[in-house]
Amino acid sequence: MHYAFTQIMNTRLLTLILVLFAEAIIAIIFFYLIPIQILPTDIRWLDFIVLTVINIIFVLNILFPLVRLDDKSHQEVAGLGIQWTATGWYAALAFLFMVGNIIYAWQSLSPALSFGIQAIIQSILLLCFCGGIVASRASMQKAQEVYESESREKKGKADIKAALSDLLAKAENTPKLPAEITDRIRRISADTRYITPSGSAEAKKADKTIINDCDIIEVALSDYDMNREIITLNLSRLENDLKSRRSLQNT
Predict the structure, then answer these.
(1) Mean pLDDT lowest for which of 13-27, 64-78, 117-131, 194-208?
(2) What's the rounded Cα separation, in Å, for the pair 77 and 80?
(3) Does the reported pTM lie above 0.70?
(4) Are 195 and 157 in contact (CB under 8 A)?
(5) In terms of C-beta density within 10 A (0-12 exposed, 13-18 middle, 19 or more buried), how is residue 132 classed?
(6) What is the pLDDT, as a whole number, of residue 101?
(7) What does DSSP assign to residue 175?
(8) Could you tell me if 99 and 38 lie in one domain?
(9) Are residues 100 and 194 in the same domain?
């Protein structure tokens, strides 16, 4: 665990160093290599900021990866395509627009577009990118909601299987219990595979009824001779309740 944490921190430190190195190169290019007559100060700063934003966007995706393997909902996967599409399009369009203006200015010794127009276009591109990020987050949230809904629906079936498993274990370890009782419980337990997970109020109520049936039978098994009729009656009730639950569809 400590080794893995150290590796992650080393990777992030190395990435941060590379980012700072890239920023230094960008600053040297814009403020020392490109003549002032080609790029006025305001446009020079605008292009520097655009490249810095692009650099930071890609770095954030490396330092803080979107997908977390410990998240069972995998909500990040739902927004991964949208986020990387938005990132790729923004970076490509913003960079090409900037480079195109620099090439034109280099050849004609004057900017192709004024600072105001370039700032507006770059702002629009950045706004579109932010819209893509918002859409990505909305997709993640929707995936999380679906996962939570499915988890709630599966919980009832899982609780029934657990209760029947405990009941079967109790029956198998109860001395002098007739084999037909154990076999009957085993068949009932096997029938849980036909239950459809559902989050409806009716299904939740049916799940609780079945679990209650199992609890009653499990307690009664402690003294089969005395509770013979109770066990037989509640096994029949359990079978009927399970049959009713199987008839409920996912709603």
Answers:
(1) 64-78
(2) 5
(3) no
(4) yes
(5) buried
(6) 87
(7) T
(8) yes
(9) no
